[in-house]
Specification:
By secondary structure, the protein is an alpha/beta fold. It has helices at 37-47, 62-73, 118-121, 138-141, 143-158, 177-188, 198-205, 210-218, 260-274, 278-292, 305-313, and strands spanning 6-9, 13-21, 30-35, 52-55, 57-59, 82-84, 91-96, 104-107, 131-135, 162-166, 193-194, 224-228, 234-238, 243-246. The strands form three sheets. An eight-stranded mixed sheet has the order 4-1-9-10-11-12-13-14, sandwiched between helices. Strands 3-2-7-8 form a four-stranded mixed sheet. Strands 5-6 form a two-stranded parallel ribbon.
């Protein structure tokens, strides 16, 4: 792959969002959209003018075609996505809410993406790609996808590229919490930048204080740990001693919290690749997360550079 800035991989699904509030089985009309933590990050970075390639597999079906066309519309490279004739593309149903988290029901078992393996992409060259972004979702889908996650991370590290890792815990996809913690931490310890939420950090480390959570990963060789604190912003700590709390942004109305963490990752990754300081990059992450929660879809609120600059320039938005 030539002229690619960022690589990512994972499962994309067609998503159907309820058009009205209520229990999903009572909803008659839905709006189709795209879902997937890694595709959210890919779209967010592409809107900030980064060249992003997404690796995965989709079924040879209408949902798979929709996923590819939706990403291509966002200028995300899908040239190495595999088409599976034997497994379907996953999909999900998502409720509409006025506050809090929506109800989401997945139909993804034995999906095309869950068969993603080293064999599928063993000949893919990382090329000029500067960075790999990963989440903890693909390793939870199957043994094959878990091996592929390690393969991709090891390959990028071998070529001295940076790797960011968002645990994005999905307990229902794992056999046990013990297995989840062990496997997710194996990957996190290999990353350069680790981006857990505070509750995820507590589960993965057993510590409650952000400083202690960060220290566990820094002691394993991670260079930067940024812990998402919701409306309180984020806490960062680096291997060279920088430690800081970065305030969040005021949000007038929270429409949907899904995708906020992915937006945060977009901000941090793009900021660091742009050459901003770590605190400046985390501030950008807070800003994009704040924009995302004000939109109904998983990626609808991810901004272009003009919208991002306008939002961040309004000093009254910053939570003091």
């Amino acid at each position: 792959m030539k002229n690619i800035d960022v690589l990512t991989f994972g499962e994309a699904m067609a998503m159907f969002i309820a058009d009205e509030i209520g229990e999903l089985h009572k909803i008659s009309h839905f709006t189709r959209s795209l879902a997937g933590a890694e595709t959210n990050v890919a779209i967010g970075l592409a809107r900030l003018n980064y060249k992003v390639s997404w690796l995965s597999k989709v079924g040879n079906d209408p949902f798979g075609q929709y996923v590819l066309e939706a990403l291509q519309h966002e200028k995300v490279d899908t040239s190495v996505v595999g088409i599976d004739n034997h497994h379907a593309t996953g999909f999900q149903l998502k409720s509409k809410v006025t506050e809090g988290d929506p109800s989401v029901h997945y139909f993804r078992k034995n999906s095309a993406a869950s068969t993603l393996s080293i064999e599928d992409f063993k000949n893919v060259e990382v090329g000029d790609a500067k960075h790999l972004h990963m989440t903890g979702i693909p390793p939870a889908l199957s043994n094959a996808t878990r091996e592929f996650a390690h393969f991709m991370m090891d390959t990028m590290k071998k070529h001295r590229k940076t790797v960011s890792f968002d645990p994005n815990l999905r307990p229902n996809l794992w056999g046990s919490e013990e297995e989840m913690v062990d496997e997710i931490n194996k990957l996190a310890f290999k990353a350069d930048w680790v981006l857990p939420g505070i509750s995820e950090g507590e589960i993965l480390t057993g510590y409650k204080m952000p400083e202690d959570i960060a220290d566990l990963y820094l002691d394993k060789g991670v260079k930067l740990v940024v812990i998402k604190l919701g409306t309180k912003g984020a806490y960062l700590k680096t291997s060279d001693g920088i430690s800081e709390h970065v305030p969040g942004f005021d949000v007038k109305e929270v429409v949907d919290t899904v995708g906020a963490g992915d937006g945060f990752a977009v901000g941090v990754i793009s900021g660091l690749l742009d050459g901003l300081t770590v605190p400046e990059s985390v501030k950008r992450g807070n800003a994009i997360g704040a924009l995302q929660v004000q939109s109904p879809g998983d990626s609808d609120g991810l901004p272009n550079r003009e919208k991002l600059g306008d939002f961040m320039s309004k000093g009254e938005c910053l939570r003091r």
